[in-house]
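Example A, followed by Example B.
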Amino acid sequence: MYFAVESKLLGLSLWLKKRGFEQESEWIAGEIDSKDISTPTQSSSEEDYFGEWRSSLDEIAIEISKKGFIRKGIKYVGSGAFRTVVSPDGEEDLLIKIPNFERDVGRKMNRSEFEKQLEFEGLFPKVYAHADDFSWIIVERVSPISDEQLASFFPKLSEMHSNRPNKSDLYPFSYFLKGALKAVASNSRSGRGSAKRHLDKCFGEENLEVSRKINEIAKSSPLLQKLSRVISSIDIEPNDLGLNNLGLGPKNNLVIIDATIRSDFIDIPRDPWE
């Protein structure tokens, strides 16, 4: 199907760009945006795959974005400051994300979500299709995750958390994980300071060994390393990676459902640990 081909081409473009092949990356991106390639996105193949609602999705997006109107056959799932999430009746595994009031930020978030799932395959929900201008995206629905389930992905960190001096329920494993990610991903003085303050709260005391132990654990944890790379490479807020923004994918894999990427909102670089 066309949208799968487009995803692979854009994934190749991103891969080349990260490795310094800017000219080749730009050429592929240009081909994706050209009419020769983009015309098939409106072909009947997507309608056959998704159902009749797919052919009306541009209209549905305008109704929701401009008027806040949701037609029959489309269910409201939720909304934030920049996007509204809906789901077609009978499609329990799919979500549609639409920018509120046709705002550019919502479109940027949709595009980022599409590119993230290509660059970090399996760590973000799969985007099945999107509008040319990202006025909508079709995404797989991900199940919520519990604190206990989250801890099961990081057995050594979970053991460390269970053995901490401070047993307060105010600091569950999900809170500890945010501090651990700060400790592993930090490459600045402010980052290391933020990690220390976070972990001191969790452990109930000042302990200089905590960050060192976490970094030792990270050396044998591919998932922890991968999350650290995500935070560093696409400027995600470590504090965003809590229960509300994590979930279980279709293969019971850990998935980042939603997270703030600073470049979607501002063009001026900032310290992500502030």
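Example B, a separate protein, is given below in the same form.
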Amino acid sequence: MWDLNKLAVTLKELTPKAIKDGKWAYADGVSAIKNRLTLFVKKFPEIAKTYSETQVIEAYKKYLKDTTNFDGTISKYRRLLKYFLWRAEPDGDTSSVLANYLENDMSELETVHPVDEKEIDWMDEII
């Protein structure tokens, strides 16, 4: 099981100290993040059992990279950390960018693609 306090501190440290739309900090305080993580674990218990704290951190790092523009600025589509963890949608549904990243993007990161020996030989011939 995740150490929620430690994970909350790490996620807060990774979050840029910027303000979204001139109104909201991208990360709340550690206790608010911990509460959000506690609710995430309750709403998505299978995901919380399946993935490690390290995978959560890597998913968040990937999300931060994916939502950073080429010039280094923050994309307008980046969610606040609390909504990255989970969000109650207007239609009553619950969504989680974290859950999506863990279930989809992390499996891509963990997939090891074997190197074709013919490809290596072909590349050696060019050099």
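On Example B: The radius of gyration is 18 Å.
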